[in-house]
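#structure-requests
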Amino acid sequence: MSQLIYLDNAATTAVRPEVFEKMKPFFIENYSNPSAVYSFAGDTKEAVEKAREQIAAVLGAKAKEIYFTAGGSESDNWAIKGIAEALQEKGKHIITSKIEHHAVLHTCEYLEKHGYEVTYLDVDADGVVSPEAVEKAIRPDTILISIMTANKLPALSRMAAEDSKKYMGNLQVLQKIEKLGIDTASFETPELNWKNVYNRVSDTMQKENTFSDKISFTGSTASQLNTLIAQSTDAYITIESSTVRMDEPISMKSGIALDAAGVTFTGSTDDRVAQAVIAEDCTNFALYNLNLTAGCYEYGIYIIRSNTFTIENCTISNALYKGLVMMGENKNFTIRNNTVSYNGNGAVFLNGNISNGIIAGNDVVDNYGTRNLTAGIVMTSMEIDDYYTAYNEFKDEHLYNLLDTPHDIVLYQNNVKHNNSSGIYSDGAYQIYIVENIIYQNDKEGMCLDYGTFGAYVSNNIVKENGGRLRQSDEDLEADFVTAFGRLSDGSSPAKLPGISIDNSAYNTIVNNNVTQNYGSGVKMVRSAYRNIIMENSVSDNNKGKSDDFHFFGIEIGHESTPDEPVKGLDFTASYENIVCRNIVTGSNYAGVFLAVESYCNDVFDNTILGSEWYAIE
């Protein structure tokens, strides 16, 4: 093995010999608890107090003013909560900025839930809070102003002008952002953004998704129910029948809610209806407690060009194709607390200009279909030729021309598990917010941000044991160009897939996730990934699929210069101007962080990397 040149001292550094010698007695001799009362603790306590006095002397402070914590987050938490409690009689108003460390922001959010008011100040393009804004925000009851002196993250756009023109001047995803007129500064406050979307949609639905009349249905067929729906206006219809036969699709209209608690829908799989429920060009409707499990439909719930609707507490299973479909322009919706499972060709499918939505608390599990667009939750910008077919033919189009795409959607606290494709697949969506989901044992990627996705915020998710490729057919592997690698003894492909994949995508923020035990790397920038931030994640043991031919990494910054087949809708470049920082990368990864050939102007710093088989950074 050639001599190792270690370039990761910003993250973990060898202890200086004199420091090690000074600390050695406390590792192997005086290792007692300094707060204990037994005599063995005396020397340790004396050493701690001496250190406290030395630090106080350097700072010009009193020894009793020096406290030791486990790290910066604990210190921030302690200081803010301590001041808030101590000064609550004087006031309960706190001022901070929108770009503080999560240790500050999360503590402020906690205090907001306990009666405090927090003002979050904007920053300018350089990440600076103006003194005038601070002065204007101060009130008589302000007790604390907490604003960092410096933001240590480099600017996302940091190449020299000549290099930027050379490497990034013609990139398709950046052209897409420009054509949509999105200000890239809006990506700098993703935590605030997702909460604004969530609150805005929640407020809209509470005000507008209401029904005044109450009607009961006692018939036995979907056609009879459709007659009642057609005759009703602004009505909440409760189905009181024990069974309803699906002799035709249930056809929703504006101003109608259906509640089917306790109802069994029946029908024949030999004579399926096109959809169990269809809503086309509707405004203000709702579906509650539908138990669609009979499989006598090609699609479960199918929505076309509709606004202001709720789907809640439904079970959507055993569709021939997909469980829940939205096509075309749809706006203002909540998809909440549903179970979508065992559908034949994917689960939740959003295609078109779909915005201002909340998808929360759902179980999206055990769905079939192994291609990208049959993932558990799909958000795609594919051109639509047929609104009644949720899988239009793929057209090789420049991705910057595919502008009708899902955006401003929150995926929150869903369980996305055991699907035969990926858990979540974004095919060109933008400003989507994937927060606090459990993404587990999906056969392809846990999550894929692909084909022009930008401005995504992926935070506080558990992404575990994805990418095993145990259920893909030979045809599937051929479509993914990995047939040549054969199969392992368990029947799976050795070309495993990562927990989180980023491909031809930009300005995505991946922060505070637990990415663990995935088969084919933890977070992988496959190629053509630009200005993404991978920060403060726990990334562990993501070499689960290693074999004689493949090994995998904690975090990859990738490059693929040659396409598997000619395609104009993707760029094939190295990855530029990404930031990988403050992650804890542990376990049996081949290397903690991998930078592929020609990767340029990427910043990798302040990561803790332990236990890699060969390198901290390769």
